[in-house]
User: Fold these one by one.
Assistant:
Number 1:
Amino acid sequence: MATLAEIRAKLKEQETRQGGQSTGGGDKAIYPHWNMAEGSEAVLRFLPDADKDATFFWKERLMIKLPFAGIKGQTDSRPVTVNVPCMEMYGETCPILSEVRGWFKDKSLEDQGRKYWKKKSYIFQGFVTENPLKDDETPENPIRRFIIGPQIFQIIKGALMDPEMEELPTDYVRGVDFRIKKTSKGGYADYSTSQWSRRERALSDQEKAAVDSFGLFSLNDFLPKKPTDVEVKVMTEMFEASVDGEAYDPDRFGQYFRAPGMSASTGDPNKGASAPAAAPVVEATPAPVAEPTPAVAEATAPASSDKPSSERAQDILAMIRSRNA
């Protein structure tokens, strides 16, 4: 995992590449709704994916947490967790899940199985139209990214399956905002009362100008890159070491997946600089952490179409409902 400074530098680089200039701190591109106080509400307006071939206006991310007792060679190291991509995210068999699935047949291994099971999160983009976070500063590019957990995602998807929804909520003219409401349940953050706004709202002139000026993100650029065959083998070995209670071995794994706080030079100096950092998992609770992402391709304006917007919306909604039926 990259350090905080490395993450901020990478995000700043991405924002600079997209907007042609610094956006005042790339780390602010991800909106931390999980930092809201209990009883607060944030209003978001989701936007489409810049990828014209994308069916959905979000991307699903699947990650696996690998906990280690510490870091080998460091006598005072604390337990660390390295997060790796689940191969099912790329439509392939995941060797870790293939092993873990069998554990659920034995009740004594169920808790262990849940520890290594894939964690889902979803990446969206859009505007924050009402912000309860007093210390949050909107970057120069006001199009933010949102890391959404399964609880909120089910509410978002549920409305899309409603046949009474006639227009995509991301439509620039007839779209609707989404209200994230934070409460608590059993000592954990709860977002079950979040909901779509009832009224349609056209994008403001300022919002349309931001889309025209900065363009939209291609959300695929914020997913971890697909591991190579060698990296899949390394992930499997890391999984086995984690289950056996071993410490994380930087000499063995550092050039492929780095533990939190480790620099890019860990391991083989000829490979360390290009080695992918393990991305942290984002969950509904506790508070999620933004992942270090690959460089962002220059965003483009939404693809044009000869169809009226209402017909395009119906086509996409039909695909969404068909795929999720």
Number 2:
Amino acid sequence: MMRILFLILLLANVVAFFLFRGTTQAPQAQYVPQPLPAAKPLRLLSELSPDQLKALAQSSAAAQTQINTPAPAPVTPAVGTATATTTATPVAPVMCASYGPFPGEDAVRTGRERLQKDGAQVTQRLLPGKVRLGYWVYLPPFQNRKQAEAAEKLLKKRGIQDLYIVADEAKRNAISLGVYSQRSGAVERRKQMRKLGYHPVLADRFRDTPNYWLDAQGTADQLPAVKVFEDLAEGDVAIKRSEIACPGRGGN
């Protein structure tokens, strides 16, 4: 009886074991081997043709060069360096001009200040020259002093005043009939003397005097037209402007 009971319990345990295993383990997926991709069969170097060996050597050298060549380093712009392209401002050409003659020290000083005010570089030079004193009307020299005195006395009797006998060596014994600042006055005096039968001479009178010149260097805007200095001229001697070669440029 005890043996039968033992067999029943043993059988019950076996049945329970298989029932429990079937509920806890999931069926494993069956492994299916995949076919290998198609590949070229291996060949020995001795089996390759000369052209194949040359192509293989070139491909190997190219691959080695690509491996050994370092990648270029990125360029980092310096701090404060402008990356945009800027257009250079054109520079005005430098030229030179000469102004003169200025009649005196005061005039040339004023002219130099006007040029320097505009930014020009100015140098001053002094040249000998003459200044017109006026227009001189006179009777040509007589042969001697006695003849000159007789002519002078006759002219005064005929109402001609403001005359004298010249004592200078160049025009000795000539009779001066007046010096005029305007040419029109001298021409009128000459007409008057011709009506009386005389043949007077009309000549310019000058005196020796230094002439002042200003040489200026700068751009066209810094070298004004000569009209800027018109008020500094004296008499009928106008101030002129002329182009000159800049120092050290040989006129180019």
Number 3:
Amino acid sequence: MHEDSEKFASYYWDEPQFPLYRFGFGLSYSTFGFSNLKLSAASMGTDGIDATVDVKNTGAQAGDEVVQLYTHERFGSASRPARELKGFERISLAAGESRTVRLHLSAYDISFWSEATRRRATEASTYDVWIGDSSTAAAHAEFSVPATMVQP
């Protein structure tokens, strides 16, 4: 870090560590708020889990928004990405309009290719869920996957 500037905390002294545009970034004629993120259960069952969030057009014009769902496995046999896009839905809202959006996650959605087992694996773990307009979504919840959901 360059000693004259504390605003940069990266391996390059003259560049910030974050991308100029986050994944999922898009321009709209309006602004949107996300609130009241809820999961259908605290633990994933065989039929998966649903996430709902209230989306409100907080701007003065009608607009479209892509509601994006990201997950992260907190611990497991392999290092997982910090956030993975697992679902999305495009919606149109009039100015001031609100809508509850439901996105579904299945066990397959949170599985990954395991080099150790040489097949897709879903692990017993705690998973974080974020829903918002990009990879920097702030609305957060968590659920667990019990050992009974894991195939040997």
Number 4:
Amino acid sequence: MNFGIPWVTDGMLDLLADTAEISASLDDQDEPFLPNLRSLNYIGCATFLWECIPFIFGERRVKESGASEVPITNQRPFHCLTMELYSRNSDPDLDPNVISELKRLRTEEGYEIQILDVTDDVHRDLLHGECI
């Protein structure tokens, strides 16, 4: 969903995705962006690109061939994401590939991920497709 103007949400999520792995190459005066962040609760409209969401958990943007499955030790300890989304006239445009990856992160990696559509009186879990 793009309304033609930059959204703070896109910038924040992109920055979290880009800095999930805390780089050792930072200058002495630079600080890592929120290096101790463990959880994020977002309440608002789905005015961001879904593709960056899996990367805030430290998943590499490009999977390297032969990359080790060993957890990165210099990774932000981010573990929990809760989103309560208010749609604008339609369901949030959640890519099926992103849904699949978020489900994998939740079941295989143990991350706490909950994405709710709270537009109606009934809250709907967008990862499970069920009302709660």
